[in-house]
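Fig. S4 source data, part A: sequence.
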Amino acid sequence: MDLIQTILMGIVQGLSEFLPISSSAHLVFTSNFYKVFKGIEIVQESNQEVFLDIMLHLGTLIAVLIFFRKEIWEIIKALYFGFKNKDYSSLDFKYGIYIILGTFVTVLIAFPLNEVAEFLVFKPAIVGCLLVFTGCLLLFSEWWGKRINDKKEISLKSSIFIAIAQGLAALPGFSRSGLTIATGLLSGHDRSVAARYSFLLSIPIILGASMVYPLIKLDFAEVVTYNWLAITVGTVVSAIVGYLCIKYFLKFVGKFSLAVFGYYCLIMGIVTAVFFGLH
């Protein structure tokens, strides 16, 4: 793993974590395309690459924490004063409860899929096929959402469905933001509401994956030998690109359809499935 690879993957992570195109799929594609052109075996597993993936997600977590710092603080305050004063009526309090409950549901769905997800990291052709499904779902949700997209607040029922979608997105190729935003559209919410809630819901999961996974899986005696300059640069790049992506993506979804991302997922999924299928 070198500096160029980590910068490329930092850019890819920063863009694809929040765009509905599957960050995990694009990290798989970028890493494996790089290996193909470098003549490295795709099946070769590297703990350093796993650690880089964690750090890149940590970079985008920093981006979303900074961008939504006011909303996060309001939700924390609402939870504190809501329980203290036994007043559970505010929207911020409800969102806090929905995010906590949604995180629990996500873990229940995602945890059994963990081994499958790790297997798919080295099966980019299959990941391409899953990305095609993401594209189809985005296109269908846009078509359906034009019929009923007037709900301005996330409901308990919608939050459960969105959390289930986030859990399924543990599989590379199933875009987390794509599945959650699409589920929000299918539940009758407009794109801006669905996108904002999707980003807020991602915070506990990305935080948990960034903190818990290293404690369970990684050998810290090995971690100190990694290319820390490359990893640090990649993490910083993912944070900067991620922040800019959130800023402009939220403006985009307020005005334009997500269909362009659906078509992109279809094309990218088919191309990568064919390319890696031949390799």
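Fig. S4 source data, part B ends here. The chain has one domain: 3-277.
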